[in-house]
Design a protein that fits this description.
By secondary structure, the chain is an alpha/beta fold. The chain has helices at residues 8-13, 45-64, 76-88, 106-125, 132-149, 171-180, 208-232, 251-259, 270-324, 333-363, and strands at 18-21, 33-37, 40-43, 69-72, 92-94, 161-165, 184-188, 199-202. Strand 6 (161-165), helix 6 and strand 7 form a beta-alpha-beta unit.
């Protein structure tokens, strides 16, 4: 695989040519500034393109020789692209706070990585026998170590190269790499100093689209180096080989399989196996559908059986009511009114004698 290709138009669309404000510039970056427009420096892309190509070639050569690259980008807009690019090309990354001594004090950092792995094993094996306080403290420690060292937990030794986004923010990482003699590939903006950077890439280090472009290009270069390394070892990178635990297949079995058709035994090819599997799936689907239809029919029959007793009870209840009411004559609409009228008349008649008696007593 060759180096990734890019064009000036692609760089312009991603905003690589935009620098910082002119009053915040670093004089050491003056040779890479093309002009100033609206108070902002414009980076000369005619110098960026060859320098970016040289940086990609350096990463390609490092990976092809069996080396490793550490991607570093802790600013907010660089955290996700850096992690994705490093994971895509099987490299290491740091996208949270850079711990002081990550490179110069690697022995202590490797002990912290071992502590992280032991905590993971304890939590995976089981949390029995631990109190809530101990479990909470262990999970907090795991979260802190994972955030700081999760991207380098599989790194066995110091990296062979660093890829840095924004050398001003990652000044400590560049200083440690310079002290240990580790080459640094870095994107340097107009407000940064290029000191300590081995392969300089003048460009915008704040725009998300520009950072995504850098990470994608360097990930492709690393992948190309990996493919070259695997092909040099005699491994085909485009072919996945599955090795059984029992070992390689026996040649005698292959000869038996080859001689089997001559004995009259027919062996199905891949197409016939697929056809049989398709027919089996269809038969199974039909059986499932038939079972579902039978279940629905059974449910309907059961529901009808459940409805019949309710109807019978309703009919029996109606017959009982009719038998009870047989001896009672049905009242007509006019009978009620006529029965009410005598009561009212009787009350009037009974009230008159009382009045006459009271008058007679008063006269006496």
């Amino acid at each position: 695989m060759s180096l990734p290709k890019f064009s000036m138009r692609q760089l312009i669309e991603c905003g690589v040519h935009y620098g910082h404000q002119s009053h915040r510039w670093n004089p050491l970056m003056g040779e890479f500034i093309h002009s100033k427009r609206n108070g902002i420096h414009i980076i000369d892309l005619t110098k960026t393109i060859p320098m970016l190509d040289a940086a990609l070639h350096a990463v390609f050569e490092t990976i092809s020789k069996g080396g490793s690259v550490l991607f570093v980008g802790t600013k907010r807009q660089a955290q996700k692209p850096v992690a994705e690019a490093a994971g895509r090309c099987a490299q290491f990354y740091i996208n949270q706070r850079w711990l002081g001594g990550t490179l110069t004090n690697w022995h202590t950092v490797s002990n912290s990585i071992g502590r992280l792995k032991s905590i993971d094993e304890k939590l995976e094996s089981g949390i029995e026998g631990l109190t809530k306080r101990e479990l909470l403290g262990m999970r907090r420690e795991q979260g802190k170590l994972q955030a700081s060292l999760g991207g380098i937990r599989d790194m066995k030794s110091l990296p062979d190269m660093l890829f840095v986004v924004d050398v001003k923010k990652e000044a400590l990482a560049v200083a440690e790499a310079k002290k240990l003699g580790i080459p640094v590939v870095a994107v340097v903006d107009t407000n940064c100093s290029p000191d300590g950077v081995t392969f300089l890439v003048p460009g915008n280090d704040d725009a998300s689209r520009a950072i995504n472009l850098y990470c994608d290009l360097f990930a492709q270069a690393a992948l190309g180096g990996l493919q070259l390394e695997m092909s040099a070892k005699g491994v085909d990178p485009g072919k996945s080989v599955a090795v059984d635990e029992a070992g390689p297949p026996d040649s005698s079995q292959d000869s038996e399989v080859a001689e089997a058709p001559e004995s009259g035994t027919e062996y199905a090819t891949d197409e016939s196996v697929r056809a049989d599997a398709t027919e089996a799936d269809a038969t199974e689907a039909d059986a499932i559908e038939a079972d579902a239809i039978e279940a629905d029919a059974a449910e309907k029959i059961q529901s009808k059986k459940d409805e019949k007793p309710t109807e019978e009870t309703a009919v029996s209840t109606g017959n009982e009511d009719a038998s009870v009411n047989e001896g009672i004559p049905e009242a007509k609409e006019g009978d009620g009114d006529q029965a009410a009228e005598p009561e009212a008349n009787g009350s009037k008649v009974s009230s008159k004698p009382t009045k006459s008696k009271s008058k007679a007593k008063s006269k006496e």
